[in-house]
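Morning!

As promised:
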Amino acid sequence: MAEPTDPATAWTLAVARRLRADGVVVTAGQVLACVRGLRLLDAATDAPLRRRVGRVTLVSDPAGLAAFDRLGDLAGPPPRPLPPVAVPSRPDAGGLDAAVDRPGAPAAPDASLVAGRHASARERLRTRRFDALGPGERAAVQRALAELRVTTPRRRSRRRRPSRRGELDLGRSLDRAVAGLGEVIDPVLRAPDLRRRPLVVVLDVSGSMAPAARALLGFALAARRTAGGRDRAAVEVFAFGSRLTRLTRLLDRRDPDAALVAAASAVVDWDGGTRIGASLDALVREHGPRGVLRGAVVVVCSDGLERGDPALLGRAAGALRRRCHRLIWVTPLAGDDAFAPTQRGLAAALAHVDVLLPGHDLASVEELARAVGRAVAPAPRRAYAP
Amino acid sequence: MSGAGAGATGSGANGAGGAPRDPAALAAALADRAYLADDGLATALHLALHLGRPLLLEGDAGVGKTEAAKALASVLGAELVRLQCHEGIDRSQALYAWDHARQLLHLRVTEASGDDPDEASLYAERFLLERPLLRALRGGRAVVLLIDEVDRADEEFEAFLLEVLSDFQVSIPELGTVRADEPPVVVLTSNRSRELSDALKRRCLYHWIDLPDAEREARIVALRAPDVPADVVGLVTEVVARLRALDLYKPPGPAETVDWARVLASLDGGASTGASAGAGAGAGTGTGTGANTDPGARDRRLGLLAEALGVVVKDHEDLERVRAALGPHLGG
């Protein structure tokens, strides 16, 4: 190891420390590469050059680049430590964080659960509105969601797998023939592999939507768990209020409760007003080109109460629809018998939606799981059409 | 299978052989190959040459990720070995395979001549099909390995790739271990269709190629399409900059700008201003729209660009947005 007085090492370590303080993972190998690069170019005291070396060696994605660029004047004194990020918590019926039952915290016994017989309590829970749940019921709902099986339809992949029927796999067949000294006794067949379609869940987490958003986050976690293995990565989750945030990476944590808390702290714009159109537009622009939407089943959960321009929402919903396999819109409002999509935003979006579903209770989320898995989209529910 | 080997048929003049001394020299050498690298990219490529680490290039489609690797190979006088990734790619397509048909033929011939089939002769070098990774390991320093669109490969393949890029050696059961004496220069590109694994990303140097500004883009077009008159280049890059400001779903990349400039030059063809075409290769081409004295020429060219709008804007909604913002003749 180099001695700390060496300017290249000192600078690199200082920058790495500040990047890490900003949440960027910097490995020892990357630090080493930076120091070697600085020495190679004799750049330790050349501010613009060493900045370029640091940018190339210490970070490994656009988020890291942004963090690096935020560092500003790297020669200056280290910044004061930031105060811990306060997650705005709302009184009840509010943020995701408020609703998580922390392990160890005694759950308030809920009269309706204790009193009734078990089966009927479950049944009652299925049709209990999310926004009217007691704390104990919330935990029960999350447990029920955790057991949900959510699978998207399959599609044929370019990859081929050995199969009992299909086309001849010449390579493998000849390989066997060589092993058998030249006799083709046992031809090997192969057929296209089947993969699950990607699932993209987009959650409106503005105040009134929080109970449903929480449930659908549980739904997304269930989808990730059901998919497992290589299809796991094909479940993406985004949240929006006044802007769009990608939650997928936060969901990789083991503990779903921790994931909920992490999600809550990632989406900090609780009170910014809901800009659905702008958020869906950002989804198409920023994540569409990466192929996140291609061939995907997209579930948008929002009540359609748009703060911005309803026309933009209509355009964004259309752009989204044209880039994915199927667009499902979930709104808790549809749980009311008297529901009609009179919200201007929702009406604008509905023209592009394949399926409109309520998302106000457990039973409706189960219906959503079935809708997601259906190979062919049912005809749009014209009853709701504007 | 081992990719398009763009040999070192550089345009002579530049000192061939040996890597340029520093990033600035590398950038100059790349510019001689009609590739303009900014300071950041030149530094990144230079470090990739000297630190023995792969370089991961990301950026919007058409910004020149693949071209960077090709130009680098040309500067080094190295062979470009390209591994194009796709869904379902596996070791036998990336590393090596045995030529079964020839092996069988060999067996038959051996049998026919009454000899005992000998397994060792069956797995001789001449039956080995070398794929890009093996070729790169054997070529060592004489090779630039381009692993293109690595995000399209499956995750299992990525893990295998990480193994190869860490040790620069592989073992082939029938032949033994192949090790690169000196690791080849490795450039990976990704379109971010999915996140790459953290392990692979951290193993690499990283650079994001930005869209160029109008002035740089004019120089790129002048280098890539030296036949296009300077005032055409200026007009096209000016309009492209305006298109990018429109917040399109799919903003045009430099590759498309070059195409558009070529299209305009050929549509505009014989009509007027043939004069400036000859000396167009000069590097410092400014955005000289004023160079052309004919006031009608600009409008005529804008009209031609509008007709060929599909060269740069390839999305229906974007087309409508452009027409709404700039008018049918792009004059606005």
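The first helix of chain A runs from residue 7 to 21.

Hope this helps with the figure draft.
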